[in-house]
Amino acid sequence: MVAVPIFVLLVIFAAASVSAAPFSPERHSKKIRKIADYMAAELSNKGIKTVMVKPFSDSKGRETIESKAVTENFIRHLSSARGKVAVRSSGEAEATITGILMRFEKKDRWQLRVRAARSGSNEIITSYTAIFK
Q1: I need a surface site. Which of 11, 47, 52, 115 has the fewest CB within 10 A?
Q2: Nearest to 53 by CA among 34, 68, 33
Q3: The CATH number of the domain where 92 resides is what?
């Protein structure tokens, strides 16, 4: 049996837990607010008054804990954004907002792609891509 010093095991465990840190919407709230403000202004400038925000997902279309938290944070900021766009949870809306939150191979970076399209068509009204560290 090989004896491994406890210090080495602690360092390995600490490194693994740091690289696997989940995305924190609270930590990036200012940047998410900036995205929501931008989207609201663009939608408002195009005459869009109502939007529905679909749950954000990962690159495979799955809703994750991180993407759900980002969706909630984004909706909160969009609802209070300067562009004055009404956010609907269901029913009729002029535009639909979708988002994809992806982790880069370098585990401490994330990409958020948000897109607004006219409801009932594939016409993209506006989009925003951000990198989070």
Answers
A1: 47
A2: 68
A3: 3.40.50.10610
Examine residue 15 and state whether it is found in any structural domain, yes or no.
no
Which of helix, strand or coil describes residue 120? coil
Closest CA to 130 of 11, 48, 39: 39
Compute the residue count for the chain. Answer: 133
Q: What is the token pair recorded at 43?
A: 């939608």
* 20-72 pLDDT tens trace: 456 776 788 999 999 999 999 999 999 999 999 999 999 999 999 999 999 99
Question: Whole-structure pTM over 0.70, yes or no?
Answer: yes
Q: Which domain holds residue 40?
A: 23-132
The answer to whether residue 118 sits within a structural domain is: yes
Task: Report the C-alpha gap between 115 and 128 in whole angstroms.
Answer: 7
pLDDT tens digits, one per residue of 91-116 = 899 999 999 999 987 777 899 999 99
Here the tokens at position 91 are 């029913």
Q: Is 113 exposed, middle or buried (0-12, 13-18, 19+ CB in 10 A)?
A: middle
Question: Count of domains in the chain?
Answer: 1
